[in-house]
Amino acid sequence: MSDSASATAALGAPAAPSGDRSGKTRAAYGGGPPGRPSARGVGRPGPRRGVSGGSPRAGGGWTPWLYLAPALVVLGGLLVYPIYQLGLISFFQYTQAQVSGGEPTTFEGFGNYAELFGDPRFWQVLFATVLFAAACVVSTLAVGCALAVLLTRVRAVPRLALMLAALGAWATPAVTGSTVWLFLFDPDFGPVNRVLGLGDHSWTYGRLSAFFLVLLEVVWCSFPFVMVTVYAGIRAVPGEVLEAASLDGASQWRVWRSVLAPMLRPILVVVTIQSVIWDFKVFTQIYVMTNGGGIAGQNMVLNVYAYQQAFASSQYGLGSAIGIVTLLILLAVTLVYLRLLRRQGEEL
Amino acid sequence: MNLPRARVRRPGRLAAEASALLIAVVVAFPLYWMVLSAFKPAGEIESGEPRPWTLAPSLDSFRRVFGQQEFGRYFLNSLVVAGSVVIASALIAFLAATAVTRFHFRLRTTLLIMFLVAQMVPVEALTIPLFFLMRDAGQLNTLGSLILPHIAFSLPFAIWMLRGFVKAVPEALEEAAYIDGATRARFLWQILFPLVLPGLVATSVFSFISAWNDFLFAKSFIISDTSQSTLPMALLVFYKPDDPDWGGVMAASTVMTVPVLVFFVLVQRRLVSGLGGAVKD
C-alpha cells in the first residue's frame, strides 16, 4: 500500500502551483527532480518502507489540527476566499467606475455570463483554448513517451546527455523560454529561418503559425517531466516479466501493448492529467510570445482573455466570469482524475 | 530493468544512440543559443547571417543589463520573494504533512482530497480577486503581494509530495523517541525534521521555481512602484515588440535562468544522498 501511495506522492502530485509552467512553471512544477523521486516512488518497492513506514497513529487530540492550522489559514485566506470572491465578482457589474467608488456595484445575477455566452468571441477563444491544449498534451505525451523508450535503449553516455538537456529545458523559466524561442524564430536575426531558407517569414503574424510556435515552446519545456516519469516507470517493470513475455514468443509490439502499457497505466494517467491541467492554463508563453494575445487577439486563450478583459478593459465582472468557467472546466478534469486514482486503489 | 536489450541488434542500438545524442543537441540548442547570444557583440546578434559561434565574445549585453537602473535590485527582489516562499511553505507544509500522515483524525481523507483539488485551481483566474485583496490590505506594490499568494499556491503540492517522505520515517523511531522521554515538539523538530529535510529540499525546488518565474502577479500587483519589480519584468524592459534589444534580452534571460539550473542540480545531489542515508532503521 505505501508503495503505491508514495508513487503518487512523487508522481501524482506534480501540479504546478502556477500554471506557467506552461509548463515550466509547470515544468518545474513537474514532479520531482528528474530521476530521483520518481525512481524512488515507482522504481524500488522498498519493503522496509512499506512495512515500517507508518500507518498513522490514532488520536493525538488537537495536535494534528495545531499542525494543520498554519496551512489552513494560508489556504483559506489566499485560495478559498479568493475563489469565493471570484464567484461573487462574476455576478456583479464591476468596472473601473465601481472600483474607484464612483458608482455603486450592482448585482447582475447571471448578466455577465449571459453576455459572455452570447458573445461569439468567447466561444471562439474557448474553442481555441481546448484545441491548443489538446495539441500541446498530445505532442508532449508523444515526445515524452517516445524519448523515455529511447532512453531504455541506449547506453549511459547518450542517456546522460539527453537527461541533462531535458533537465535544462525543464528548469528554464517560462518567460526566458518564451523570449529565447521567439529569438530563434525571429524573422530577421533568428537561425531557424536561415536554416530553413524562409527569408523573413514572420512566425507570429499568422494565427496558426503563432500558435504552432507557442506549442513548440510548451512542448520543449514540458516533455522532460513526462519523459523522466515514464522512464522511471519503465525501469520499475521487473525484467523477468518482459523476459517471460519474449520467451512466450511475444513480439516487441505485443510486449508493449499487452505487458508494458497496462503496467504503466497509472503513470500515464498521472502525466496525462497533469499535462491537461498545465496546458489548459498556459498564460506566460502566450502572453509573451504573441505579445498579449496576438494580432487583434487572434491567439487568445481563456486565461489571457480573462486577464485582458479585467486588467486592460477594466471589465472585472466579465473577467471573473471567464475565470469561473476556467475553474469549472479544470474542476471537471480533476474529478475525472480522482475517479481514476480511486479506481487504481490509491489509498489516501 | 533491462528491456529485452539482448534482442536489440547492434546497428539498431547505434542508431538509437545517435538519435538520442542528436535529440539532446536539439533540446539543448535553445539554451546554448541564449547563452551564446548573450556573449555575442552587438553587430553579430543583429545580423542576417546568424552563426552558431562567436569569435569575439563580449560582455556588452551583460553590462547593459546590469547597467539598467536597479537591475541588481530586481534580482534581489526575486531572491527575496523566492526565498521567503521556499522557507515559509516548507515549514508550513512540513507541519501539515506530519499531521495528515502521523495522525488519524476525522476529515483526514477529506482534507487530503481538498489538497489534491487545490492543486488544480487555475492561479491565473484568481488574479482578479487577489488584486482587490492586496489592494484592500494595502499590499499592492510590495513584495508581500507576490510572496503571500505563492506560499498558498505551492502548499498543496508541497504537502502532497512531502507526505511520502514523512511516511517513510519508521513508526518505531517515533515510539523509541517517546520512550526515551522526548516530547512531541522535540520529536518533531529534532528527529523528524532532519530526516525529512532532503524531501523538503526536493519539494522546495517547485516552490522556488513557481515564485522565481512568476510573471503574472509581478505584472498585475506591482503597478506603479518599479523598485519592487522582479526579474521577469526587468527582462521585458529589453523586449519591446517592435524593436527588441535581443542582446539585452538574452543576457537577462541567462541571468534569470542560471539560478534555477543551479538549484536543480544542487537539489538532485542532496536528494540522492538524503534518500540513501536518511532513513535507516
Automatic annotation (TrEMBL), chain B:
It is found in: Cell membrane. Gene3D superfamilies: MetI-like. It holds the Pfam family BPD_transp_1. Keywords: Cell membrane, Membrane, Transmembrane, Transmembrane helix, Transport. GO terms for cellular component: plasma membrane. One of its GO terms (biological process) is transmembrane transport. The chain crosses the membrane at residues 12-33, 74-99, 111-134, 146-166, 187-212, 246-267. InterPro entries: BP-dep_ABC_trans_perm, MetI-like, MetI-like_sf. Belongs to the binding-protein-dependent transport system permease family. This is Sugar ABC transporter permease.
